[in-house]
UniProtKB/TrEMBL annotation:
UniProt keyword list: Membrane, Signal, Transmembrane, Transmembrane helix
Source organism, top-level taxon: Bacteria
Annotated source species: Flavobacterium jejuense
Spans through the membrane: 28-49
Protein name, per record: Family 16 glycosylhydrolase
This protein's record includes keyword Nucleotide-binding: no
PROSITE patterns found in the cross-reference section: GH16_2 (PS51762)
GH16 domain residues: 47-318
Family the UniProt entry places it in: Belongs to the glycosyl hydrolase 16 family.
Pfam families: Glyco_hydro_16, Por_Secre_tail
């Protein structure tokens, strides 16, 4: 980690915790190693940007200068020993490559201020930003032994502190022997070992990185030393993953077991969905090298790192590079910070170029106060135990608001108790801030302190001071001002905009919402509650004077004022946004929030199952044998001629095919009074059937032909068509799943039974290896989502692999190793289940010697662990004592919570006992991990 923001980052994260009011969060640890397979059509496209370093291009690169002390970060946050100097960065001929030049970063033993070493570093911050693509650098490093630390890496351009902005390390060398031992490469040398990494935020303000997991990390150890020769380093970066490789000669090696998965909706990995800038540097000493004193450096100096080129290619169709002169275009008009319906010239897009932060976990989101306008609101309850509160909206890439200080204003709506004193402020990207105060009980800037929504208008000139409006970070910030009330309180903020005061704005036209359900009376409201099968018509006003457009779930669009949704289903739930653009060109919107509740006895057929279709009033089943006419038979008849399969069709309908219908398997209406069969190649509206509830477990079947006909079975069992307004028992049908007997497990296999009974895990072995198969015990379990997580250790991160029910999955490990595993799987009733708390296990090559499940602390026998180490007392109270069998049998002890986060890390330092203060731990279960010559050992402790 080489970020020049390390110390500031720690302080920043202590004060700020990202809220999920804008971005939906997923559980990071369940997604962390979910493997996203390479696209079948993976390909490297054309070069979209490159620098071959024939000259030093100051429009694309900046030389970093100093030892970091000038920005309050001495040693660049890593205890580095050098001062970066301009003269140590230059372009020169490459030795042995006539006519080819490279960027040179030269480390020297020479004095600069208090430093006795100098070196070189460059970055492309605010000049070249890379967003996805295949990035390749050709680099040659000097002899590193011992103490040089070369790196090619990237930082996020987002206007955030590290690690929130994200870090991508394409290559790092110079690792200490201890670090290489930890990564299980004790026979490597400092000149043969190279690694890559990413750094990212974790819940609670921590820092995560992927190199920590030795089972996932695959650092490259070259047969021939890597110094004094060129090697290529690559990342293959796309919206869902980053793959790290090194190309040594004609062979490309992966630096991790699988690509690192990223997700724009996950707060931990979302930094990697935004642009990054490049950095190259050659550090002297530092934490990675294990050398933090001048006399420990013995690498031959001067030492030169050569960068022949950096190239960015299109990768799988992804990749862009933005070049800039460092200036930001000025905003004008009405700029939306947080608003739904107020007309704006431009506005922030949360998750793309803006984020909302709560400072110090001082606020808790609530739904107690509805929005003032639109569908979104910032609504909170304070935590009185903190003694203060604060939050803000930050522009990730800076905004130029220089047009606003003269006549502009910051406007917003707020609903806050009268006895709360608060302040409103803004920040620029140069550590400057300004704010105005709102004392309790006072009317100020238009705010009437009556506990209701109030309008606040603050002249930007009142926020002036030393703020550099040409490059703003926080465009809105709220915080407490002095003592807060003794009891928790709620408040909400909405409709935040900057108005420049110089632009004539076309005023929006008010939109009035109207809707009716099933053709009944009109209702003026934006909250619409429906049941499956209902129809709803939206008819907002005005009726004249402009144009309308609509957007909604499932890519719904329309351009008429009045729209109707027929036979709505749960999938139709969501926000339907009507936009009215008046004659002077200003748009205003109204959002209808639609919820669709399931009707009791709903039926959603499983496309992988077959069903009997029966009319219980006549005790008959529908069947077909290949002729044109379907038939009816006794309700106890079985066989393929009375089994039907449902296939999804457009408009929430289904094709219904008879399993035993050889020539004409598809049920259809022939647009007359009768029903017939047609080959499955027919797919017109006559072959599409909608299922609607008739109550009491019975359903109507209605075709989608032009006049909408309903299936009926008359008293003699003839299938006919009647109008949809007919609702007799003759039109009511039941659907009964044909029972399927799962195949028996293979001979010689072993079965693990899930604790909840949802599934079995069948283990099989053959000459090709060991396999585990997820076998559902309930219909639909794991049908849409199935992820297998496994590892050879219990208390560690588990990589996740996409699997399929009833399909064997090959496990990658050595014979005799114990595999611990669990699943995440979908439920037929919706949602998902996870069995991480009920892990199963088996030994590769033999599945008969283990129990069906193990507890998380059952890693080795108790006797073996007691011979190696002891932990007492257990349960613990104020302190835990860890005693090992002999000096140097273990080097390090870690205490982790059940999410895998490290809470305490201590070294034995040639002693056999370590005492750890545990008084600050909450009651619960924790894991102790020891690392050293005896390997890695784990056990569980309980805090009372």
């Amino acid at each position: 980690m080489k970020t020049n923001e390390f110390c500031y980052a720690i302080q920043f994260r202590k004060q700020q915790v990202k809220s999920n009011s804008i971005l939906q969060k997923n559980s990071f640890w369940s997604l962390f190693f979910l493997l996203i397979g390479l696209n079948t059509f993976s390909q490297i496209g054309p070069v979209i940007w490159e620098d071959n370093f024939n000259t030093f291009n100051a429009q694309q690169w900046t030389k970093d200068i100093g030892d970091g002390c000038n920005i309050g970060l001495c040693g660049w946050g890593n205890q580095e020993l050098q001062s970066y100097e301009s003269n140590n960065v230059y372009v020169a001929d490459i030795p042995g490559e006539a006519g080819n030049k490279a960027l040179v970063l030269e480390a020297k033993r020479e004095n600069s201020g208090s430093r006795v070493f100098t070196s070189g570093k460059v970055n492309s911050d605010k000049k070249v930003a890379i967003h996805y693509g295949m990035v390749e650098v050709r680099v040659r490093v000097p002899n590193l032994s011992q103490g040089l630390w070369p790196a090619a890496w990237m930082l996020g351009t987002a206007n955030l502190a590290w690690p929130t902005k994200g870090e991508i390390d394409m290559m790092e060398m110079g690792f200490s022997q201890a670090a290489r031992n930890t990564q299980l490469e004790p026979n490597s040398t400092v000149n043969t070992y190279v690694g890559a990494n990413t750094f990212f935020p974790t819940p609670g303000g921590g820092v995560g990185n992927i190199a920590y997991d030795v089972n996932y990390n695959k650092p490259y150890v070259a047969a021939t030393p890597l110094n004094d020769r060129f090697v290529k380093y690559r990342i293959y970066w796309e919206p869902t993953q980053i793959r790290f490789t090194v190309v040594d000669g004609a062979t490309e090696y992966d630096l991790y077991e699988n690509p690192f998965p990223i997700d724009a909706n996950d707060s931990n990995t979302t930094p990697f969905t935004k642009p990054f800038y490049m950095l190259f540097n050659l550090a002297v000493g530092g934490t990675l090298t294990g050398i933090t004193s001048n006399n420990g450096i013995n690498a031959p100096l001067p030492g030169k790192m050569y960068v022949d080129y950096v190239r960015v290619y299109k990768w799988n169709g992804h990749g862009s590079v933005t070049l800039s002169d460092g200036t930001i275009a000025a905003e004008t008009g009405t700029f939306g910070v947080f608003t739904d319906t107020t007309p704006t010239t431009k506005k922030l897009a949360f998750g793309t170029d803006a984020e909302f932060y709560i400072f110090g976990e001082t606020l808790v989101e609530n739904t107690g106060i509805p929005p003032y306008e639109g569908a979104n609101v910032l609504s909170f309850t304070n935590d009185k135990t903190k003694g203060w509160f604060g939050a803000g909206i930050i522009s990730l890439f800076g905004k130029n608001m220089s047009n606003y200080p003269q006549n502009g204003s910051l406007k917003f709506k707020i609903k806050i108790p009268a006895d709360v004193s608060f302040l409103i402020g803004v920040n620029d990207n140069f550590t400057n801030s300004a704010e105005v105060k709102f004392p309790a009980g006072q009317t100020k800037y238009g705010l009437v302190r009556n506990g209701e929504w109030g309008q606040v208008t603050i002249p930007i000139s009142d926020l002036g001071g030393l703020v550099a409006f040409q490059d703003m970070s926080y465009l809105f910030r709220i915080g407490s001002d002095g003592t807060i009330p003794a009891n928790n309180f709620q408040f909400a903020i909405d409709d935040i905009v900057w108005v420049d005061g110089n632009t004539t704005v076309c005023q929006p036209t008010a939109v009035t919402p109207y809707y009716n359900i099933n053709g009944q009376s009109w209702v003026s409201n934006t909250t619409v509650s429906l049941q499956s099968g209902n129809s709803v018509t939206f008819g907002p006003q005005p009726t004249t004077g402009g144009t309308w457009s609509w957007t909604g779930p499932n890519n719904f669009t329309a351009n008429t004022r009045e729209i109707t949704l027929s036979n709505v289903q749960i999938s139709n739930s969501g926000n339907y946004i009507a936009t009215f653009t008046n004659t002077c060109g200003t748009a205003s919107t109204v959002t209808f929030a639609v919820t669709v509740a399931p009707v009791t006895n709903t039926f959603t057929p499983d496309p992988n199952k077959t069903y009997y279709i029966a009319n219980p009033f006549h005790n008959k089943r529908i069947g077909a044998n290949g002729s044109e006419d379907p038939f009816s038979t006794a309700i106890n008849t079985t066989g393929p001629t009375v089994e039907w399969k449902f296939t999804a069709a457009p408009n929430n309908s289904y094709y219904i095919d008879c399993v035993g219908g050889q020539g004409n398997p598809r049920l259809r209406s022939d647009n007359s009074d009768f029903t017939d069969m047609q080959p499955s190649s027919y797919a017109g509206t006559w072959e599409r059937w909608q299922i609607t509830t008739a109550g009491n477990g019975k359903f109507y079947l209605t075709t989608l032909e032009s006049n909408l006909r309903r299936l009926q079975m008359n008293s003699v069992g003839t299938l006919k068509q009647v109008d949809t307004n007919s609702q007799d028992t003759w039109e009511q049908f039941t659907f009964t799943e044909v029972s399927q007997t799962p195949p028996p497990p293979p001979v010689g296999s072993c079965t693990r039974v899930a604790a909840n009974g949802d599934f079995n895990a069948v283990i099989t072995n053959d000459a090709t290896g060991s396999y585990v198969t997820f076998v559902p015990n309930k219909t639909g379990v794991g049908s849409s989502t199935l992820i297998l997580y496994y590892n050879t250790s219990v208390n560690t991160t588990y990589p996740g692999y996409l699997a399929q029910a009833n399909v064997p999955f090959k496990v990658n490990a050595s014979a005799g190793q114990t595999i611990y595993f669990y699943y995440t799987y979908s439920l037929p009733t919706g949602g998902e289940n996870n069995t991480a708390n009920d892990k199963m296990n088996f030994i590769l090559g033999s599945c008969t010697s283990n129990n069906a499940r193990i507890a998380e602390n059952e890693i080795e026998s108790k006797n073996v662990m007691e011979d190696m180490f002891k932990i007492y007392p257990n349960p613990i109270k104020e302190e835990a004592i860890i005693e090992i069998e002999g000096v140097n049998s273990f080097d390090t002890v870690l205490i982790m919570n059940n999410a895998g986060q490290i809470l305490e890390k201590r070294s034995f330092n040639d002693a056999t006992k370590v005492v750890i203060n545990t008084s600050n731990l909450s009651p619960g279960i924790y894991f102790v991990q020891l690392e050293g010559k005896k390997g890695v050992r784990n056990t569980k402790i309980v805090k009372q």
